[in-house]
What does this fold into?
Amino acid sequence: MPTYIVKATPDEDWYCMWSTVVDAPTYWGTRRELEQAARDPREIAAERFHRADDNGSSAAWPGWPAARQPFAWADDEFLLMNDTPPMPDPLPDGADGACWLLPRANLRAFCEALDQPDGDLAPLLRLNLYDADGNEIESFGPESGDAR
It folds into this structure.
């Protein structure tokens, strides 16, 4: 399964490795820190960092324009599929499903909060609630362009 290098902002030497296995960041830091932490040298190939610097993401799906690649600059929020932080239990009345959305503007703060044993993640995320048909019924938290 792919892991993408995702850049939080165009003008900063800070990246995260986003795993599509867990649909969440797995490690993060400066380019040098990622190069030192990488488990597979193919993950940190120079052309992958170059694409992340140019496009926001190292993704290179054949036939897709750079601006439409997964996690490219046009993606201003990312879906977290793991249970970090835990979902409200029970869900509010009328909600049959929920997901966390991480605004790109909060990507670095979210990763740094993961490093803290008592890091408060929920204020960095948006919680979307859905009905049984998959329609969004309510949203709580920062909008995608709002950094905490």
